Amino acid sequence: MHRETNGDNEGRYSATAPTAPGRRLVPLAPHPSSIGLQLHVCAAVIVTAACWHSAHALTLSQHLSWPSAPTRTSPATAEVMASIGVPSTPPTAASSQAATTWAALLGGLDQAPGVKEAKARAEASQAISEQSQARAWLPRVDASVRTDEQRQRYNGLATRTPSSASTLQATLPLWRPADRANARADDAVAEQAQWQASLRRQSLARELSQSYLSAVEAAEQTRLTRAYLAALEQQARAHQKRLQAGLGTVLDALETRARQEQALAQSEQLLSRLCSLTLTLNRLSGMPAAPPDGLNPHSPEDPDVTLPPLQDATAQALSSHPEVLDARAGVRGSLETIRARDAERWQPTLDATAGHSRTRQTQRFEGQSDRQDIRTEAVGLVLNWPLFSSGFQQARQREAAALLSAAQARLDDAEARVATELQDAYQRHEQARRQQARQEAVVASTQATLDAVQKAWLAGLRGTTELLDAQQRLHNARMAHASARVATLQAGSDALALLGLLDATHIAPWLGLFDAASTSFAPSSP
């Protein structure tokens, strides 16, 4: 189109297509509503030309995806990030050390202080059980030696009699019902201690796995927040250039700076959580741990753990879970204790004994000495029968009955808790999988929204606040997606722990999901 300035057509527009001879140009009057659109288009062209290079750097999919593009950080932002321990640039692969793997932490649990304590207590209980068995069934041989000197006076006359004696005594229990019931009760207690050691290790493995996965989540969210800060830094530089060109306002820079402060506060909170989780890993594993630097950006689709049906898994857990087996051993021990108390009340004990002794003494009286050498050999039976104990044994019986009721209630509680926890783990695993799929859709939707808002912002059709809100929504969606992925792993590890399968073999498919490099935000080992 071209503008004509002759006659009545001044200020009007006409078509600029070539005209044939003899054809007239048809004047076109502008529509009142098209003037505002033309001004908007012109302003967008000017803004785009003024800050095209800076705006072109705002493709946030490059900053909010893995791996992050290397960006420069302003001195002010770098100073604030350094004050909270977050490096302004990500560490290079050459300078990062390998992360401690999940399987390595589980494999080293036998050296953890808690597991060592539980095993030591189990060994002590086993020794007590062996003592009870020896007292109830096995023979015993005792030797004793005695030497003394007696001095007496008979009617004013002094006598002195030195003597020595040696004895060898053998005892064989023939019938000790109370001791044998106590031995079976102590054997059940030793079995309880073994299951308690297994439960302690399983609980530590479960707690360590949850802490490890939480550390992975914190490291991944810290990395996403760092990428979000890099994108905001690019945004701030673009606003600064627009402000210098007279095309922007101070409000744009202030809004961006407010988002940066919020992201820095979030980074500080995540860093504190990551440091605490690293210290927890060190305490639980008994070794210095280096959590991975988040999730592996190049890992394929998350592998799913193969879990048996809930009904079969519940039956398996109730038949093999250490807490349930510990409670069942406690019931057996309480039953044997009741039998022991009944035997103590009225049943006799019978022992076979054999002894050999030799006594030598010399009696001196009025200058005369009388030497004696006595040898004694004895074989016999010893019978002990309780007749009356003034209510002592009846009270012990009531105590044993009360302890049996407590053991049965503990068994019921253990079975209900294991079944409930397993059902809850299955439900959380299924919900986490669905939530992960939803968050993937949310990330894709927010990414598309951000791309559209960014194009509209470049064209001058959207404001800075709308662009910052779109960036924030994408960042929140990525953070929620990372949490959903970790929640799926946590629920799966809980289910494996309750089934007794939380070991390096069964978690091997998950190891590729974590970054091989250790995080640069965790505290160094002392």
Automatic annotation (TrEMBL):
Localization recorded for this chain is: Cell outer membrane
What keywords does the record list, in alphabetical order? Cell outer membrane, Coiled coil, Membrane, Transmembrane, Transmembrane beta strand, Transport
Renumbered residue ranges of the record's region Disordered: 1-23, 288-309, 345-371
What SUPFAM superfamilies does the entry give? Answer: Outer membrane efflux proteins (OEP) (SSF56954)
Q: Is-annotated flag, keyword Glycosyltransferase?
A: no
Q: What GO molecular function terms would the record report?
A: efflux transmembrane transporter activity; porin activity
Coiled-coil annotated spans: 397-439
Q: Which domain of life is it from?
A: Bacteria
Which Gene Ontology cellular-component terms appear in the entry? cell outer membrane; efflux pump complex
One Pfam family linked to the record: OEP
Instruction: Quote the biased-composition stretches of kind Basic and acidic residues, using this chain's numbering.
Output: 1-11
Specify whether Transport is a keyword of the entry.
Answer: yes
InterPro entries per record: OMP_efflux, TolC-like
Which family does the UniProt entry place this protein in?
A: Belongs to the outer membrane factor (OMF) (TC 1.B.17) family.
Q: What's the name of the protein? A: Outer membrane protein TolC
- Organism ancestry: Bacteria, Pseudomonadati, Pseudomonadota, Betaproteobacteria, Burkholderiales
